[in-house]
Amino acid sequence: MKFKLFDFTSKDIGIDLGTANIIITLKGKGIVINEPSVVAIDKETGELLATGMEAKEMLGRTPETIKAIRPLRDGVIADYTATQVMLKNALNRVCKRYSIFRPRVVVGVPSGITEVEERAVEEAVLQAGAKEVYLIEEPMAAAIGANLGVSEPEGNMVVDIGGGTTEVAVVSLGGIVVSESIRIAGDELDEAIIQYTKKVKNLMIGQTTAEQIKMKLGCAMPLMTTATMEVRGRDLKNGYPRTVELTSEDIQKAIQEPIQKIVDAIKQTLEKTPPELAADIMDNGIVLTGGGAMIQNLDKYIMQKTDMPVYIAEEPLNCVAKGATMTLENVEKLKTVFINSRKALHHKLGEEYV
Question: What is the spatial distance between Cα 68 and Cα 5, in angstroms, rounded to a whole number?
Fold first, then answer.
């Protein structure tokens, strides 16, 4: 039986619907949209006022009549209407720019997603104008985007640290053999920085400021030269604005707990890995993808804690989106990686045996 998903002449789109960023790729064009997953909506009319970076700059600064939100939390849809508006706007822009009508779409989703959450993603993308929607687990998409030999009979481990979830998976022969999905990732690191400055420095800062601190000072082990940054916030004692200096050592302490939980997830996955594949991982190493892969010295820290070689993928932020594009370009070879297509095929095969 021939199982064909895509017409190779069609315009197919890949989406990394991330908690922090939405990245859209178009077959043959590469990345065509890369912007923060934030929308600003008029509360009274429901009108979309801004998306992406423009909306992100509104976070924490809007009057009562405007709602600026991140509609995805922990890797899944938290605000269905806002997600639908964001997707529709992004897809419309791509379709208009490249003269595409009702594209087929591949979306990266967390490996721990529930069936209810799957349906919410599918429905949101269909309502946004897609003809058909296929879902791929983010660690599989990340592994493909990192150019790992996912179709080969050997084990590769990928750790995708996004905004809302960290996905740890061992892939082999076009499938995920063992995996671990935890809702501890970039957002949790930001929250840890907010709590640290609150507790240790008596200073209240916002999420955007915490993210900037993480990007500049975030490290899993001490740096060769201590980095510093001046941070402005609200003094918790008198309520006035105040500036403090934070160091990379401060931030290493601040994010130590969530970083350790990510390492624990990696260890748990390794413990569940079949011996033959574990031997392959020892040879091939652990590959880090996602924005969290750029935390300084994280690769060294994981290497120290697991005794495994660890590598950071090229362009780690874009691996899931690139992987979605690559599945579109190699459909016959990679058709088994789509979650909902596998389920449909299993259901069809089951009917044939009844």
Answer: 37
